[in-house]
User: What shape does this take?
Amino acid sequence: MNIWDYNFNYNGQAIIFNIILFIIALCQYRSLYLGRVKRTGNYIFLYLLLVLFATFAYAEADFYHYQFHYDMMKHYDRESLAEPIYYWIANKLPDNYFLWRFSIWGSAALLMVLSLKRVGVYASYAGLIMPIFFWHQFSLTRGSLGFCLIVLALILLFENTNIYDKVVAIVAILASIYFHNSMTAFLLIIPLAILMPFNNKTIKLSIIMFPFLYGVTVFITNNLMELNILAAATEDLAEGYINKQHSEQNFFGVAFDVLNFSGQLLMLFLSTKFILDHRGEINNSVAVLTKYGYILMYISFLFYGQSVSSFISSRFLHASTFPLVVVYSYYMQHHIINKKDRVSMCLLGLYAFYELIYPMYKWW
Assistant: This one.
């Protein structure tokens, strides 16, 4: 059976469940948004919210697409996904799609909680950032398990820990490639993040060079398919993403892109400035995660709006949220939340709410 022939039961009404979780999180952490209370919070509660939102991700189209893959693996004995690990999980667990999702996204959520705790982030500050910045991206793909593993591995690698932890970290980074077939591309960025000087000059130079690098990217990617560099399957996948994006590039689509990017760039600017200004006090692993997230987002913008490779932009932007959710949570905890922070969080929150309301309207 072809995925495009599958009867996807998109359910707009079920998204009310996700909206309720979103509102609960906003209410739970609203005092921190106002800057009135500093408290540690409860990671069990935060974990449950994150896992419930991702396991029952009714607002994500891939939630329904993964159900097709699960049916192929569980009921037709076909390795429908590229990575054998998910076929193995499907056949080891009882026949329940939600249990399969919980085993994957629940494991990823646990790795993220361990990462946040390892750098000393309170659950309340992670809870302040996660619903408005992270929940949507976390729920999208099975690759979340690989990205969360990378984040924890980088923290173990660059903390002042013993040699055993460093060996485990390296093995974990290499093992992440088994959780999504695109993970290799993101692993190649890690050495650059480690070696890149982290200072104001580097940031300014990257901004100055952006128009030139964007032009180079346009030139290269416009010739990829003509030169037959991409495999046929990759070309088909790229064209699918392109057609989907073109169908959504109306006035409102562009307007909400601007809303999303405004919030993300402002938050990236504020947190990066804070970390650069306090380099001597910042945890080494947080500095590396900041560089890693910055580079991933930078690459994302290099590919944004291009006819052939715009799908790469969303992939790299997606990847950037995993290291940056740790960075942003750390940033919020270690300074007094101000007006600029609130503006950024408000923009991110509006976009996160749009990501719930729009599919509910579309699939009702």
Observations:
- Residues 227-243 have pLDDT under 50 and may be disordered.
- Residues 251-277 form the longest helix (27 residues).
- Residues 12 and 361 are 7 Å apart (CA to CA).
